[in-house]
Amino acid sequence: MIKACIFDLDGVIVDTAKYHYTAWKRLANEIGLDLTLEENEQLKGVSRMQTLEIILKKGNLQDKFTPEEKVALTTRKNDWYLGFVVKMDENEVLEGVEDFLKTLQNNNIKIGLGSASKNAPKILEVTGMAKYFEVVIDGGKVKKSKPDPETFLLGAEGLGVLPSEAVVFEDSYKGLTAAINGGFYTVGIGSSEILGEAHLVLDGVKDMTLDKLHSMNI
Question: Quick check: pTM over 0.70?
């Protein structure tokens, strides 16, 4: 019996990837680099500092900045990103998400969030989604980022369920790998070419039903 669902945030509950991309591209441009949409796809599910290192490596700039300067760079990017976040509202929630969360609540299925974003609590608050989540594991609560399963294992622990009793919803390959590594059932949100290892791949949470959820562990 599936007892819980754990959701990634960006690209699953809300679409904030566009804001991350705008902020990272601005930062890249400031240090003489560029960031394409294709390159940005590889940054999904990656922590803030790891993302910076990937961008710096592209221009062989890893050693140009001190650790303190790198922190300052990520802080600057996050400030730009938060400028978008504070303007978010319930209209940013992806289609079908709230209806499915209500269905889960009405059927006593626990709900958690597992995101690399340290801004996850703020985003849930401004979009009106915080009330649905019993446990929120964000980038500030883990020592190992995806594809390590720590994020989702902590989520399951907080919800009081085993990984084999929970389904993880992810839109990134690293996030999906983390869930598989942790022993969870998985729903990939997006392209089957990228997320084909998931137990089920859907275009969006809007396509998920209670019957599909319970059929996953039969």
Answer: yes
